[in-house]
Amino acid sequence: MAPDRRLTDVEEDLLLWLHDDATVARLISDLTELEPLAIVAVVVLVVLLALRRSTDAVFFAAGVGVVWAVNPLLKQLVGRSRPDLWPLPPDVSEYSFPSGHAANTAALVGALVLILYRRPPAVLLGGAVLLAVGWSQLALGRHYPTDVLAAWVWALTWVWALTRVGMLRNVTKGGPG
Q1: Which of 5, 13, 15, 50 shows its CA 20 to 30 Å from the CA of 136?
Q2: Angle formed by the axes of helices 34-50 and 100-115, to 10°?
């Protein structure tokens, strides 16, 4: 388990500035809890299966499911305590690294962007969603900036790595899978 970490002056200044009005941040955070994301994931899977895009459905389930299952284990393994600028809600887990909101959303958005063949509107919308989620977690004081960045990197790397695996390669070749 990692020792408790104190905020640097730069991190504290950034979090205080972002926290100025956290109403929108709370809304974004609530919408990107695992339960609402799971509803979106089920809808995406149902649509993919109805369209007979079974390879895309397997890719999506593997990309999202592994990140959602492994991220809590990574938090326990690293054991990094959360910033202590503001009291945290009782339902927030003890550890902060990597950010669950950022990783879970990145896996879902990353998989969708690849399934949509990297169309510019999907990439731009996906990037905006990820930035909003990252901002919300920082504004609420629930994470250090590196928690969010690491979550994005690991989740998007996992989703990208799946496109390199045998039967999943046609997800990124521009044709239905």
Answers
A1: 5
A2: 20
Query: Has this prediction a pTM greater than 0.90?
Result: no
Please state, as a whole number, how many other Cβ atoms lie within 10 Å of the Cβ of residue 168.
19
158 SS3 class: helix
Name the CA radius of gyration of the chain, rounded.
17
Which of helix, strand or coil describes residue 118? coil
**What's the distance, Cα to Cα, between the start and end of the chain in Å?**
42
Q: Which two three-digit tokens encode residue 58?
A: 């397997």
Structure tokens at 173: 């070749």
Q: Classify 119 as helix, strand or coil.
A: coil
Digit-coded pLDDT (tens) for 101-122: 899 999 999 999 988 877 788 8
Which two three-digit tokens encode residue 39?
């509803």
> Are the CB atoms for 113 and 126 separated by under 8 Å?
yes
Q: How far apart are CA 133 and CA 120, in angstroms?
A: 20
| Peptide bond before residue 176 is cis, with ω within 30 degrees of 0 | no
Asked if 57 contacts 104 with a C-beta cutoff of 8 angstroms, the reply is no
Vertex 152: Cα angle to 98 and 126 (nearest 5):
140
